User: Fold Thiol:disulfide interchange protein from Comamonas guangdongensis.
Amino acid sequence: MKRRDFSLAASAAAASALTLGTSSSWAQAAGFKEGKDYAKLGKPATVSAPAGKVEVIEFFWYSCPHCNAFEPQFEAWAKSVPADVVVHRIPVAFNASFVPQQKLYFALEGMNLLPTLHAKVFRAIHVERNRLATDDVIFDWIGKQGVDLAKFKEVYNSFTVANQVRKATQLQNEYDVEGVPAMGVAGRYYTDGTKAGNMENVLRVVNALIASSRKA
Assistant:
């Protein structure tokens, strides 16, 4: 879903692992072109992965139907990456209405609940039609998942989560995210379904950029 579509969507809401190459020019050799299939950032984005690791980020929004459709494919891919690849998810915020879901993600992460509840959040929104768009609705849903609600609220409203939200939005801006789902590689490259043609191609492009980044 593109950035320009979010204002309308937000208003409505409120009312196979691929083989990696090794060449430094692998992306070009595979037929992927800078400026078409992916963009090279003019200024490097912040990277948190340690030296010797290649950081890959998926930018997503829980309420995005395209993110929901991509999630199983991305999850399978993320589990298959080599040991030198560090994968992170970053929830975006194109306006203030997105913030509760950013806080939901980081609170689940802080409580080690993503393995059990991340997919359930997508299901709640896209199958059960529970928008999970405000604090109170999120708290009500969390309380029904067998989670210690008092502890969740503490984490959700913590300085740590607020800081993670700030950094997530900063990183989204550094990568100049145009829509979601989208992916960033090594603080230097950005791609999405519009650029690559579809999300399967996005993963092919990302694999090529990982290989290229190893040599950079």
